[in-house]
Structures are given as structure tokens and as C-alpha cells.
Specification:
The structure holds two protein chains of two kinds. Chain A is mainly alpha-helical. Chain A contains eleven helices and no strands. In chain A, helix 6 packs across helix 7 and helix 6 runs parallel beside helix 11. Chain A is globular. By secondary structure, chain B is an alpha/beta fold. In chain B, strand 4 and strand 5 form a beta hairpin. Classes of the chains: A mainly alpha, B alpha/beta.
Chain lengths: ~260, ~325
């Protein structure tokens, strides 16, 4: 456990020192500025525009970080051979992997929290006081974070057995496919072979269902999010991440380094 | 009490790498290596680049996994991660997180050895001093030279007082002063009773430091023993160093000599020595030195490398 913590803390430190996050926070603030502008020219829908633009920005920026830094977590260490000295210490490979995962999740949490704060500030500038229903934005942010953690786990898994470039493609592909996982389940048509339909349905359950984490529609219009949805999404993310990380650990613990 | 335990015991270790389309072909980078490094010994692992030295070391560190064979360090299987608490490892051309300072990177590694904050501080400071990075400890590693990184690597390898230290090319990238310092550190480790296994292709380092050396060429161990035992120390001839100014073109000896300015160096069998000296005297040469030519580890080594190449090309010719 101590080893995992040590690796995680160092991963976080790396992200901070490499200044990747600073730029992105700045970018997010820029987005908020744009939102305020849009809010000024549209009448009566400032809330909708700012919340949807803000949440979209938080999600998109987070996805970029999760995919690119997620793939780099292990591949960069292998490529630069920084991993060699570390693995000669009394550290298990799975501890290294988990430390890397939690380090990036920690980074994303801080980053997402900063952007969420920016979003609230933007919202407050166009309509104050804030309403109680605005707290639902936090629920949407939390679910985005769960989604990002799942993407990091996938990026980590792919980077354990393929090149960084392919790992980025696979992770992005899984994300896009996962957005439509639920739709695959409900496909029906007269001219589709029943075998193919079953196959499609099977695949849809294996894919990470990213729709589970999307409550933006409700939150933008100030509607609440039932707590059961939050619980389900949380359990789903934990289960899926556990499976993916276990797979990554199995692959990585047998991997020959260059 | 059974047989005394070797610090490192390698048995029939082999490593093959798949390559080519669909990984159907296999390249052997280490073949059936059996080797024992005794407790407290400084053992040099010699061989040209690509001979299998790094492969062996990486196998011992579990960075790569053997196709066959086993190895134990301090009596424990190399699969046992806890054993890594008592070993130190310097990777070849080490590279560390360049966003950290030397102090931070050592502190980071020290954490994996379960040292308390106070112990860490003391150990890290002592190590930085030992490898001469005391004044550069607050600088990020991205600004370090190759030699400085090598020192950081050495410091992290011995940070936790390991019983067994494995160094992959510890002298590479260092200037003469740095090499000297590394040699001193290795000798100090030996005095402290630790076991050191290090690889090198610089033979003089091995001759100077090692109790025993193993020579590996083409993935196979070709010779093992004390540096003096490995080579036949009988003189193989004589070497004369002399100065000769002006034209003395009629001296047949000069055809065999290597020239630098007015200085010449010539090697010849001992039986021809006196005749040569007489001829040089007659020509007005100034004799600077006469010395026996002893085969060095280097020549032994080159002999093995050439034998291996000859064998490889013979296999190629026969189409196997």
C-alpha cells in the first residue's frame, strides 16, 4: 500500500511539474470566458449555455488528459527506462501500475475540481444568487470523473501490450464505442440476422457503457439526478475498473521490458 | 550447514527473443548460462556490445523473463520481490525522472525501502556526498550531464546498504576522474564485504577491480576465472620505443614500425632483439624503452570474439 502511495504521489508531482495541467486549466478558464460572452448575447438561457458548455469542456479536456497521459503512464517509463531502477526495488509490478493509475486519477480530480470551480464562478457572474438546484452540477462533475477514471484504466491496459500510438487509438475507439453501447442493445430491424443481433448485444455488454455517466441533459435544465443513478454508475465504474486493472496487471507482470 | 551459498547463483539461464513476421523466428541472446558469484566477491562480466551481459543482468532483476533456467540471489529465487531489498542495481545508461532533483529522486527510491523520514534524509545526504553531487542536489535531472546521471544511478543503487550490488556498465559515460571515483566506490563496497557484479567492455577496469571475470561472447560464457589465470602470461615478444631524426630510410626495421612524429614503436620476437638494437644504434636512434609484450585480457577477449565471429560466418557459409 505504501508503495502504491509513493508511486501515485510521484505521478501527481510529474503532472504538476510538466505543467500540462496548468495549460489546461487556463484553457478551461478561457472556455468559461466564452460562456460568459454567449450568456450576454442570449436572453434567458445563460444558465443552460454556461452549464452545458462548461460541463462539455470539463469532459472533453478530461478525456484528452485521461487518454494521452493514461497511455503515457507506463509507456513513457518503459521508453525512457525510468522503470528499470524502480522495478529493482522491492516493488511489485502491480503496485507500480496501481500507483500510476491512482496518481493520474488524483491529477484529474484536482484538475476537474478546478474546472468545476471555474464553472460555478462563471455561473455566479451571470445569475446570482446560485440556486440549490445548481448543486446538481457537482453530481454531473462527479460522474464525469468516474468516466475519466475508467478511461485511464483502459488506456493503462492497452499501453501494457501495445505501442503508445495504437493504445491511444484503442482507448479512443473504446470510448466512442462505449458511448453507443446502450444503443447497440436496442438495435432491431427486420432484415438483421438474429445471430448477428445476438453477437451485437453480447458485445454491447462487454463494452464500457459510457452513457451511464452522462447526466448532462438533466443537469443543464436544472432537473435533479436520482441517487440510484449515481450509485449504479459508481458501482459500475468500480467493477469495470477493477476488471480492467486486473487484466493490465496480469499482462504487465509478464511483460519483458526492452 | 550445507554447501556455502553463493551470493548469485545462475543455473542454465537462457533467453530467446522472438522476431520477424508473426514472431516465428527466435534469436538467442543468452544460452545456457551457469555461473556462481561468491559472497564478497567482485565479479566482472566482460563481453562486447550485444554479447548478453545486459540480458543476464536484466534477467536477474526480473526486467525480462528467462526462456529457461533459474537464478538465486542470496539464496532466494529471483521471483521473490522481497529479495530486492538487499540488492542494488544500476541500469545501463541510467535515466531517471528528469523533473526531479537528485535529492528528490533518491528520496523517492528510498521510500520503497521502508526507511523512516530521518533515515531517508541522512542516507540521501550521505549518498549525494559520496558520489560528488552534493552541490548539484537541488538541480532538476533534466539539466544533468550523462556522467552526473551515472552518479545518481550509482547513488540509488547503494542507497539502502545492499549486500549484493549489480552494476551494468558503471563506467560508461564517465570522464577519467569519474571512472576513478566509480572504481573507488566499487573497492569500498568490496572492503565492506559486499558482493559486486558489474559488466563492462573496458577490460582494464576489470583487470584492476575484479577477483574473477566471466567472458561472454555471442550469448555464451566462454571463459571464467581470475584475470591473471585467464591469460597465458608468458611474454610473446618485445617492444622497442625509439626516436630517430632525419632520413634513415635504409633501416628495414622501420617498415614494421608504427610512427608518431620522430617516435617509432616496433614489435618483434625476442630472438631478434639484439640485432635490432645494434641496427638502431648504428643508425643513430635514441632508444626510449624496451619492454616485454604480455598478452592482456583484451587480447584474450579479442581472440574469443574473433573465434565467435569465425564460427558465425562458417555457419552462414554452410547455409545452416
Amino acid at each position: 500500500m505504501r508503495n502504491i502511495q509513493t508511486v501515485a504521489a510521484n505521478t501527481f508531482r510529474e503532472a504538476v511539474r510538466d505543467r500540462v495541467l496548468y495549460n489546461l486549466v487556463f484553457f478551461a478558464l478561457l472556455m468559461m470566458g466564452a460562456a460568459i460572452l454567449v450568456g450576454q448575447i442570449s436572453i434567458g438561457i445563460e444558465q443552460d449555455v454556461i452549464v452545458s458548455l462548461g460541463l462539455t469542456a470539463i469532459s472533453v479536456i478530461g478525456i484528452f488528459i485521461a487518454i494521452f497521459l493514461g497511455v503515457a503512464l507506463v509507456s513513457k517509463e518503459m521508453d525512457k527506462r525510468t522503470l528499470y531502477a524502480l522495478l529493482a526495488k522491492p516493488v511489485k509490478r502491480r503496485e507500480f501500475l496501481l500507483g500510476k493509475f491512482f496518481g493520474l486519477v488524483m491529477t484529474l480530480t484536482v484538475n476537474t475540481a478546478a474546472m468545476a470551480a471555474g464553472l460555478y464562478i462563471a455561473l455566479w457572474t451571470v445569475k446570482h444568487p446560485l440556486l440549490k438546484s445548481d448543486a446538481y452540477i457537482l453530481v454531473a462533475v462527479y460522474l464525469i470523473l468516474l468516466k475519466l477514471a475508467l478511461i485511464v484504466a483502459l488506456a493503462l491496459l492497452f499501453s501494457c501490450f501495445t505501442t503508445p500510438f495504437l493504445a491511444i487509438l484503442f482507448t479512443a475507439g473504446m470510448y466512442v464505442a462505449g458511448l453507443f453501447a446502450a444503443d447497440l442493445r436496442t438495435v432491431h430491424g427486420v432484415d438483421i440476422d438474429p445471430g448477428a443481433l445476438r453477437l451485437m448485444r453480447g458485445i454491447s455488454y462487454l463494452l464500457p457503457n459510457f452513457q451511464n455517466f452522462d447526466v448532462m441533459g438533466a443537469v443543464v435544465h436544472g432537473r435533479g439526478v436520482p441517487s440510484v443513478i449515481v450509485w449504479q454508475a459508481t458501482l459500475y465504474a468500480i467493477l469495470y475498473i477493477t476488471i480492467v486493472l486486473t487484466g493490465a496487471a496480469v499482462v504487465f507482470s509478464r511483460r519483458n521490458l526492452k | 550447514m550445507g554447501m556455502p551459498q553463493g551470493a548469485i547463483e545462475i543455473e542454465n539461464l537462457s533467453k530467446e527473443y522472438p522476431y520477424g513476421f508473426l514472431h516465428l523466428k527466435k534469436k538467442k541472446s543468452l544460452e545456457d548460462l551457469t555461473l556462481r558469484v561468491e559472497d564478497g566477491e567482485v565479479f566482472g562480466f566482460l563481453g562486447p556490445n550485444g554479447a548478453g551481459k545486459s540480458t543476464t543482468i536484466k534477467l536477474l532483476m526480473r526486467l525480462i523473463f528467462p526462456t529457461a533456467g533459474t537464478a538465486r540471489i542470496l539464496g532466494k529465487s529471483i521471483d521473490d520481490v522481497s529479495m530486492h531489498g538487499s540488492i542494488g542495481y544500476l541500469p545501463e545508461q541510467p535515466y531517471f525522472y528528469d523533473y526531479l532533483t537528485a535529492h528528490e529522486v533518491l528520496d523517492y527510491f528510498a521510500r520503497f525501502h521502508g526507511l523512516t523520514a530521518n533515515d531517508r534524509r541522512a542516507r540521501v545526504a550521505a549518498m549525494l556526498k559520496k558520489v560528488g553531487l552534493d552541490t548539484a542536489k537541488k538541480i532538476q535531472l533534466r539539466k544533468y550531464s550523462k556522467g552526473m546521471l551515472q552518479r545518481v544511478g550509482l547513488a540509488q543503487a547503494i542507497l539502502h546498504d545492499p549486500q549484493v550490488v549489480v552494476l551494468d556498465e558503471p563506467m560508461s559515460g564517465l570522464d577519467p576522474l569519474g571512472r576513478r571515483e566509480v572504481r573507488d566506490i566499487i573497492l569500498e563496497l568490496k572492503r565492506e564485504g559486499r558482493t559486486v557484479l558489474f559488466s563492462t567492455h573496458v577490460l582494464s577496469d576489470a583487470e584492476m577491480l575484479c577477483d574473477r571475470v566471466g567472458v561472454i561472447v555471442g550469448g555464451k560464457l566462454r571463459g571464467i576465472g581470475a584475470p591473471g589465470e585467464l591469460v597465458d602470461m608468458k611474454a610473446q615478444g618485445m617492444e622497442i620505443l625509439f626516436e630517430l631524426s632525419g632520413a634513415a630510410g635504409n633501416l628495414p626495421l622501420l617498415a614494421k614500425a608504427a610512427r608518431t612524429g620522430e617516435r617509432y614503436r616496433v614489435q618483434l620476437p625476442e630472438t631478434e632483439l639484439y640485432a635490432a638494437l645494434d641496427a638502431l644504434k648504428a643508425a643513430g636512434a635514441r632508444i626510449l624503452s624496451v619492454a616485454q609484450i604480455k598478452p592482456t585480457l583484451e587480447e584474450y577477449f579479442m581472440h574469443l570474439v574473433e573465434a565467435d565471429r569465425a564460427q558465425a560466418s562458417a555457419v552462414e557459409v554452410s547455409g545452416k
